Amino acid sequence: MNAHASTHSVGMMAKVLKVSRSGYYAWRRRTESLRRGKDKELVGRISEIQKKVRYRYGSPRMTAELRRAGVHVGHNRVARLMRTEGLSARMRVKFRVTTKSGHSHRPAANLLKREFTVVRSNSVWVSDITYIATAEGWMYLCVILDLCGRSVVGWSLSKSLGTDLIIRAFGMAILRRRPDRGLLFHSDRGVQYASYEFRRALRGHGFIQSMSRKGDCWDNACAESFFKTLKTELIGRTIYQSRSAARTAIFEYIEVFYNRQRLHSHLGYRTPMEYEAWIEEKSG
Fold first, then answer.
1. Helix (H, G, I), strand (E, B) or coil at 129
2. Closest alpha carbon to 247 in 176, 141, 167, 151
3. Across-strand partners of 198?
4. Could you give the 3-state DSSP secondary structure of residue 113?
5. What is the pLDDT of residues 39-97, one digit of tens each?
6. Does the pTM of the predicted model rise above 0.85?
């Protein structure tokens, strides 16, 4: 009866099926009450997750997180509840461009060629730089990501946009991963990546350098995407009160949340650490 209520009168259907109208309405009230109760419970679960991840999840990632917890729910229902209950993710904001490619250093060839799907850890790293606003002045963040699992393997923050910013991030990545010779390191054409000091560091480890084509941000899309995610999920329009506060927030986001807790759509809604462990297990 409920399925045909929009095309046939309840009274006529009740008469044909030999049931009471009052019984039908009582059933519908119970059904609607049960659904409202389940929606209320689901909203509570969504709210708990959003508080835990600091309102960084949209409906697809929230649906995946709920299913991982054993809650069998459809994406449309999650999206509706997040929208109506004000539990949506932070809005995305624009961020500043840091690439300074007007230098005399010869750029490396684009060897990556947008081959962003990598099946082995520590075979391709990508890197980029962005600005972080604080009340004490700008800070600059350099990250290095392993393209296989999208994990941040190295990062550094500095008041200066010099080559040391990249060298420190690179040093962290080397200490953590100890990659073999032949690793492909891709970046934009920024002067820091093209500098003699950084190229000497790459050669010292037997790495191969690759650079995006001039003015083509899509050639380094994975690193660009990380910063868009960072700006959306962590920073938004925040201006940190101090450089120390910015450093603490960035550390928590990268080391606690992004690498170990955040579900990545490209990785089948696994965390970067989970995905890398899965890849290692598959390869034996």
1. strand
2. 141
3. none
4. coil
5. 888 888 888 888 888 778 888 898 998 998 888 888 888 888 888 887 777 655 554 55
6. no
